[in-house]
Design a protein that fits this description.
mainly alpha, three-stranded antiparallel beta sheet, two-stranded antiparallel sheet, globular
Length: about 300
């Protein structure tokens, strides 16, 4: 029924809105005049009386709302109403939280960086110095630094990355793991360099395979690459630390991975005062499936 019909029947209409924010019901019916409510007294009340009634109703709404959403705030002084911030008629601005700031995939540039790095590291891994010293020298090579840091900023789990290297899945597999070079064991990085060499350097990969083998027999080969930072030359150390600092904001998972085979993401939208937040969260897993025989044979390096 309409407001007027309800008034004629002696009922008090309820203003639209959330039920628990409604002011206390009036004991007498109210006459609706435009959008203003006045007490029905038999004669039209004065404008001052109508203003007082309207103010009293508004105070009831404010008090109820304060009780619901402001219970933890500082108590107001006696005789004072809580301050009410007027909402703009236009929609409030919505903020989005960006969890990643990653570079654009350019297959040609990535492939060139890999080739340059393997070409520069090739002579170093062939040296006869202790394996750890060779690893430090490889990590200090500018083209290797450039390759490692640039791939660490790539969205390696993205469809774009997958499509860019769909014709060389072995290379794609290695690149997905190279992204996390800062947090992988020393021997694992050596094996990844061997895999990259196998895809871009052909016969030169044998030197990287031999290097990975001797390094994996050293005492500290399970230590993460990041733990070598103090032993790197100052210039190389600065490059890696600056990159790690950048990634802490751009892609924290690249520096502190819980798993190098998993990545989480989300779309998070919030009102300007963060009173309402909407989010959609996702987890992406990467996997490699191979069908092979004699996997446990010592000569089979599939699980290396």
């Amino acid at each position: 029924p309409s407001h007027r019909a309800m008034l004629r029947a002696g009922l008090t209409p309820m203003a639209p809105g959330v039920a628990f924010l409604q002011p206390a019901q009036m004991t007498r019916p109210m006459q609706m005049v435009g959008s203003m409510s006045q007490l029905a007294t038999g004669a039209a009340p004065s404008s001052a009386t109508g203003a007082r009634v309207t103010a009293a109703a508004a105070a009831g709404v404010v008090a109820a709302a304060s009780a619901v959403v402001g219970g933890g705030r500082r108590r107001r002084r006696a005789g004072q109403l809580s301050k009410v911030r007027m909402m703009a008629t236009a929609p409030a601005q919505t903020h989005e939280i960006n969890y990643y700031t990653l570079d654009t995939v350019n297959a040609a540039n990535i492939l060139k960086a890999v080739k340059d790095a393997i070409h520069a590291a090739g002579p170093i891994v062939k040296e006869t110095s202790p394996p750890k010293q060779r690893l430090l020298k490889v990590l200090s090579e500018p083209k290797v630094m450039s390759m490692l840091t640039s791939i660490s900023r790539m969205p390696v789990f993205s469809h774009e990355m997958g499509h860019a290297f769909k014709d060389n899945l072995e290379l794609l597999l290695a690149l997905k793991q190279i992204k996390y070079f800062w947090s992988v064991p020393q021997s694992q990085l050596a094996i990844l360099l061997e895999q990259l060499a196998g895809e871009v350097a052909g016969p030169e990969a044998e030197a990287f395979r031999a290097f990975a083998e001797v390094l994996s027999r050293t005492k500290g080969h399970t230590e993460m690459i990041k733990h070598l930072q103090s032993e790197l030359p100052a210039a190389a150390r600065k490059v890696y630390l600056d990159n790690a600092e950048y990634l802490e904001t751009a892609d924290a998972h690249a520096v502190y991975p819980t798993s190098i085979y998993r990545q989480c993401d989300a779309l998070t939208l919030a009102t300007e005062d963060a009173s309402t937040i909407e989010a959609v969260m996702s987890t992406t897993l990467t996997t490699t499936i191979k069908i092979a025989r004699n996997v446990l044979d010592p000569s089979n390096r599939l699980l290396a």
